[in-house]
Write a structure and sequence with these properties.
171 residues
Length: 171
């Protein structure tokens, strides 16, 4: 659900709250691939010795921070708001860089080797379902006039996920 917000609700905030045009927003969104290209390999290498669950907790924390950055956009100047959308993009992308390889690795190791293909397929189904639900949930908050509550709610979801991962680690 968190992945979906980058393509669905954050652009609405940037255009309606900050007055950004589609081309300005597109230019700002260059931060996403730029961060991936420059930081993916060094960041994943830096956490290679960590437990995967620790990396997933850091990922959830980065996503929570990114959602809180968007929450603050409406209460600051337009210039700072653009900076916060940029911060959202960087923090969210750093969380993605950690999440994608670590969740795949964790899912691969949870079952038997002969079931790995099915496990990874199920993980992909969960991702796609989450993306679809994320778009619907974000839209529902906006349609109900509760868009300001979306971001703290999503940050709270990140906290719940982090606790869940920590419980998985303790188990």
């Amino acid at each position: 659900m968190l992945y979906a917000q980058m393509q669905t609700t954050v652009p609405v905030v940037a255009e309606e709250t900050l007055g950004l045009t589609s081309s300005q927003l597109g230019t700002l969104y260059v931060l996403n691939p730029l961060v991936i290209v420059t930081l993916q390999l060094p960041l994943v290498a830096a956490v290679a010795s960590w437990r995967r669950t620790r990396g997933l907790v850091v990922s959830a924390s980065l996503w929570a921070a990114s959602m809180l950055a968007v929450a603050a956009v409406s209460s600051v100047s337009a210039t700072l708001g653009v900076g916060l959308v940029g911060a959202f993009l960087v923090l969210r992308t750093l969380g993605e860089i950690l999440h994608a390889p670590l969740i795949t690795s964790l899912a691969s190791s949870l079952g038997r080797a002969e079931d790995r293909g099915s496990q990874l397929s199920l993980l992909e189904v969960a991702k796609r379902l989450g993306f679809g639900l994320g778009s619907v949930v974000g839209g529902a908050f906006f349609d109900a006039g509760l868009s300001s509550l979306l971001w703290p709610t999503l940050a709270g979801v990140c906290a719940v996920l982090a606790v869940g991962v920590l419980l998985l680690d303790a188990g």
